[in-house]
Design a protein that fits this description.
- The protein is an alpha/beta fold.
- The protein folds into two domains: about 110 residues, Aspartate Aminotransferase, domain 1 (Alpha-Beta Complex), CATH 3.90.1150.10; about 240 residues, Type I PLP-dependent aspartate aminotransferase-like (Major domain) (Aspartate Aminotransferase, domain 2).
- The protein contains twelve helices and 14 strands.
- The protein has a seven-stranded mixed β-sheet with strand order 2-10-9-8-5-3-4, sandwiched between helices.
- Helix 1 packs antiparallel against helix 9.
- The chain is globular.
- Bound molecules: pyridoxal-5'-phosphate.
- The site of pyridoxal-5'-phosphate (PLP) has 14 residues, from helix 3.
């Protein structure tokens, strides 16, 4: 072999990695729990190793608990929350299907974009960013559009608003419509009762309420959703996200290869879910609510107000704070990062420059983080 023809141009000796110790109090990712980081470092095994199959089974069962569902099809999709979102759309939407999407923020808009790429006849119901739909409004939308699928975002991370879901599934099913719900910011942080609410399909992520790094994102499909998938006239147009093939790997019978599972990311999800199970859902939801209220009180003491005015419609894990007149939202966030190693985020699109987004998710939802953030924010704003 003539090695003299090797081109050395890109032989870049990168320095040893040395990342700053950020406290991630934005809309996600949130800091991973130390036990999750330990789990990721466990030895790799093969994706068909019996030891890994045990990991998969554990994840599925604990996810059912976290989501409060008995759905057999419950698993993490390889990829971030958007991969699970796209999997839901790709599998449940056929060209020409009427898909009604409730848009109360950016992630509703993303659902519109995805559903239209999969050939849906997309109908939109929109409200100002920060509002939520009433059951009556959703009922009226379903009656007017007669959709095959209604998609809603439970916790709209772009606005801080929490969409009530009680009764929505029942209204959908009376009209022969499936209900798909985005629980990316609510899983592991906010009360969710998928089966009681008759939600047919839901997806989430790992990097928020589950205290993991991003990379493996839960998806669950109930009986009605599976019936839609199995009775499709056309193949799922996305091979990687075709859940009818992937389920052969996850369902315990054939375990046939589809793609190589991200082994260590699954270790992380397993540990993140173990933490949920150990704490218990009631305690975990109460902790997120209590720390959110601590934050809201501290912000009020500083004269700051929340963008979502009704506390009952605020996401406990993600607060949008109105930026006061004359304050540069971006500059504040940059200074918190550079001077205090704290990450928060600004708003975007309709809320650009108008709000900060503060996350208290999973491992990061702790009183000491609230105190630290309030102190740092006060110091930055006072200067
Ligand atoms: N849906 C919601 C409500 C989100 O907040 C996010 C990300 O923040 C997503 C979907 C997309 O997830 P990801 O960025 O992990 O792809």
């Amino acid at each position: 072999m003539n090695t003299s023809i090797i081109n050395e141009t890109h032989r870049y000796f990168a320095p040893q990695l040395n990342m700053p110790p950020r406290l991630l109090l934005g809309p996600g990712p949130s800091n991973a729990h130390p036990r999750v980081l330990q789990a990721i470092a466990m030895p790799q095994v093969g994706h068909l190793d019996p030891a890994f199959i045990g990991v998969m089974n554990d994840i599925q069962e604990m996810l059912r608990y976290a989501w409060q569902t008995h759905n057999t099809f419950t698993l993490p999709v390889s990829g971030t929350g958007s991969a699970a979102m796209e999997a839901a759309i790709a599998n449940l939407v056929e060209p020409g299907d009427v898909v009604l999407i409730g848009v109360i923020g950016y992630f509703g808009e993303r659902l519109v974009e995805m559903a239209s790429r999969y050939g849906a006849d997309v109908r939109m119901m929109a409200k100002p960013w920060g509002d939520v739909f009433t059951l009556e409004e959703l009922h009226a939308g379903i009656t007017a559009h007669q959709p095959a699928l209604l998609a809603l975002v439970h916790a709209e991370t772009s606005t801080g608003a929490l969409q009530p879901l009680d009764g929505v599934g029942q209204v959908c099913h009376a009209a022969n419509c499936l209900l798909l719900v985005d629980t990316v910011t609510s899983l592991g942080t906010t009360p969710i009762f998928l089966d009681t609410w008759e939600v047919d399909a839901a997806y989430a992520c790992s990097q928020k309420g589950l205290s993991c790094p991003p990379g493996a994102s839960p998806l669950t499909l109930g009986e009605r959703a599976l019936a839609k998938l199995h009775n499709r006239a056309s193949k799922v147009p996305n091979w990687y996200l075709d859940m009818s093939i992937l389920s052969n790997y996850w369902d315990g019978k054939t375990r046939s290869y589809h793609h190589t599972a991200p082994i260590n990311s699954m270790y992380a999800v397993r540990e993140g879910l173990r933490l949920v199970v150990e704490e218990g859902l009631a305690e975990r939801w109460a902790r997120h609510q209590a720390n959110a209220e601590l934050l809201w009180e501290g912000l009020a003491d500083m004269g700051l107000s929340c963008h979502v005015t009704d506390p009952a419609h605020r996401i406990p894990a993600l607060t949008t704070v109105c930026v006061p007149e004359g304050v540069d939202a971006r500059d504040t966030a940059v200074r918190l990062l550079n001077e205090y190693n704290i990450e928060i985020a600004g708003g975007f699109s309709q809320l650009a420059g108008k709000v900060w987004r503060i996350g208290l998710m999973g491992f990061n939802s702790r009183p000491e983080n609230v105190a630290l953030l309030l102190t740092a924010l006060k110091q930055v704003l006072d200067r």
